[in-house]
Amino acid sequence: xxxxxxxxxxxxxxxxxxxxxxxxxxxxxxxxxxxxxxxxxxxxxxxxxxxxxxxxxxxxxxxxxxxxxxxxxxxxxxxxxxxxxxxxxxxxxxxxxxxxxxxxxxxxxxxxxxxxxxxxxxxxxxxxxxxxxxxxxxxxxxxxxxxxxxxxxxxxxxxxxxxxxxxxxxxxxxxxxxxxxxxxxxxxxxxxxxxxxxxxxxxxxxxxxxxxxxxxxxxxxxxxxxxxxxxxxxxxxxxxxxxxxxxxxxxxxxxxxxxxxxxxxxxxxxxxxxxxxxxxx
Length: 281
Known about the structure:
Blueprint: H1 2-47, H2 54-79, H3 83-91, H4 93-103, H5 105-120, E1 128-131, E2 134-141, E3 145-149, E4 155-159, H6 160-165, E5 168-170, E6 176-185, H7 191-203, E7 217-223, E8 228-237, H8 244-264
Antiparallel strand pairs: 1-2, 1-5, 2-3, 3-4, 6-8, 7-8
Helix pairs in contact: 1-2, 2-3, 2-5, 7-8
């Protein structure tokens, strides 16, 4: 019984002896984690608004927070007397990284790809991008993946490595996007007049650009069995809105205006003609 009491008394005395060190370690952990959170908030509130690409600020804040917290934990363990333990952690970090590099190749690849994407900035928040078979608006860039929202409302998480290795299409980076559609006129139509009516009709839509380098073009695209097909190409300003619904509404308005004006001016828009021959037996 005395041994049992002495054992707990020894534990108590050891705890009291180490209490100042434990308190210091707790203070270091608390202050370190507060500094990490403060740095994250500073980046989010002060630095992020000044950057053209806010995704870079989000990514940097995540990485810096993880690094600071890791350093604080190592310092706290040193204060608690785990110097050999922390030394072994740091000494074995190279070997551990090498081993984990094979075990978690994809995770490491996506992390490094995330760093490259954050600083290279091939897209910004809310940009409309296409990677592989995924088309959507950029919502977030994380350590491992990029989250995009498709036009039909689905959240898709694309690994950063996949974005870096495959061709990436950004539809809204420079603020200009071209749309096109096909319309067919009858062979007996006055094609030159038809081209003028189509071009003027497209220009009547307010959201269609008509600058020097972004003019509407009307080209004869194909001669089919029943129609002369025209390809109409026009530009819109994606800085005004990156919404695919907004873009489609402009395209719909342009097509509607073209059809109305052609019909008003007596142009015939024939459907596909199917010729049926009946042979006598």
